[in-house]
Amino acid sequence: MSVYILGIDVGTTSIKAVLLETTSRVVEASHALPTESNITDNSSLKAKEQDTVRIVDTLNRCVGLLPRDKLQRVCSIGLSGQMHGVVFWKAKSGCDWLNRNFFTAKDTSQLITWQDGRCNSDFLSSLPKPDSHLDVATGFGCATIFWYMKNRPDFLEDFTVAGTIHDYVVSMLCGLEKCMMTPQNAASWGFFNTSTNQWNIDILEDAGFPLHLLPQCVSSGSLAGQTCSDWHGIPALTPVGAALGDFQCSVYSCMSARTDAVLNISTSAQLTYAMPADFKPPDSPQPTSSISYFPYFGASYLAVAASLNGGNVLATFVEMLTAWMKELGAELSGSCLYEKLIHCALSQESTDLTVSPTVLGERHNPLCLGQVTNISTSNLSLGHVTRALCRGVLDNLTSMMPMPCLQEAGVNRIVGSGSALDRNEVLQQEVEKAFPLPVEFGQNVDSAVGVAMVLCDRL
After folding, report:
1. How far apart are CA 264 and CA 258, in angstroms?
2. What is the pLDDT of residue 9?
3. Partners of residue 19 on adjacent β-strands
4. Successive 10-residue mean pLDDT values, the chain, 459 residues
5. 414 forms bridges with which residues in the sheet?
6. What per-residue confidence (pLDDT) applies to 44?
7. At a CB cut-off of 8 Å and minimum separation 6, what does 406 contact?
8. How far apart are CA 225 and CA 223, in angstroms?
9. In this structure, are residues 336 and 322 in contact, taking their beta carbons and an 8 Å threshold?
10. In 142-219, where do the E strands start and end?
């Protein structure tokens, strides 16, 4: 009888759950749902928060839609999710299992996401320098905690535990009072040394940081615990892996050789390749470098051009057009408009319009915002603009990790993945133009599949 691993990705805009058959390593069932959890910010903080209750409700609906008979034969559960962000909760009352078949969020904060902008450059420059090769940016968990400590200390008094949103889900599934966090997620918070796999305790303590909110570090690919109750038919005492980064899991799902580079375009965008096994990152941050080194599994690293501007740029374009149409008295749904834009761009094979799509800036250059240049009367159609926007997303990524960099690393193939890339044929065409290498667009290439594969291989 078949046995399955449940892989779940708690993403920025959606949740996906898959059932991976352990022997064949084939995905036999999957479901994805939009979370629609963004909270409107009417302040001047540039806050980006999401409703934790709605995220957990979507998670329950998504898992509940998988075949019940297969859920009853799940042997382990793995979770990945959006990195950098932070959610706070109370250790002994972070959720309710009143129904005994699923939990609901309780005594938690909202999720402050990786897109949060409240930590401006002046605030970040006031923070201590981390003992890490990774710098600290706005939207990083430790930076956000520092902001609350300095601006709303009373907020922190309401909570005893903190973690990423997927760390929170693992903690609730296992009934943990202390958050268990892998180096993949800890590095994304800042003030974490990946060489020693330890928080910068002395630096943080000297700065008055609330150390009790720091999670306990466990190795990537290890177990966090066991389910404390039945969950949608999955038996109690089912092993649960410590939560992993969505980016690393996406790479794991499709990087079949060290000569592959993985291009992921979802809400944001990343281009990455594996570093040699003996690679050691720099001792200190390189804030102006467009390439970072993310911890992978064991002592290995990925070289990453991590752009803040990916599918979210296309979504912003659709939202802008939708708002304009509404002002003009015309109504069209975002999804319908998106399909029409793609259709227009497919009939416009090239354009001399240039769009620099960095409307969110970049971590290594936060003040470099978007631009549109070379505008003429002949390139103002929706086809031209959409084509130029898709090309701009790729041009930005390849400027962060140029082709010579990939060639020096021995890369001979690009593997494309991510929800924005999957649904956008124009973006796929621009990927093929951007790289003078074979390009393959993966099947079942995503973080939910990746985290299931990790458990299948390592547990």
Report:
1. 16
2. 98
3. 6, 29
4. 96 96 96 95 91 98 97 98 97 89 95 96 96 95 98 96 98 97 98 97 97 97 96 97 96 92 94 95 88 94 96 97 95 92 97 97 91 97 98 97 96 92 95 96 83 92
5. 261, 439
6. 82
7. 261, 273, 435, 437
8. 6
9. no
10. 161-163, 180-181, 192-193, 198-199, 216-217
Largest CA distance in the chain: 65
pTM: predicted TM-score of the whole model, two decimal places: 0.91
Backbone angles phi, psi at 177, to 5 degrees: -90, -20
Q: Which amino acid is at 380?
A: L
Contact 242, 224 (CB under 8 A): yes
Distance CA 422, CA 447 (A): 14
Amino acid found at 7: G
Q: Would you state the structure tokens that stand for residue 170, as one six-digit string?
A: 């693992």
Rounded to whole angstroms, the Cα distance separating 383 from 379 reads 8
> What's the pLDDT at 458?
83
Label the pairing between strands 27-34 and 14-21. antiparallel
Q: Helix H segments across 296-380? A: 311-327, 334-346
CA dihedral 331, 334, 335, 336 (to 10 degrees): 30
> What pLDDT does 205 receive?
97
Structure tokens at 232: 């949608």
Number of helical H runs and strand E runs in the chain: 16, 26
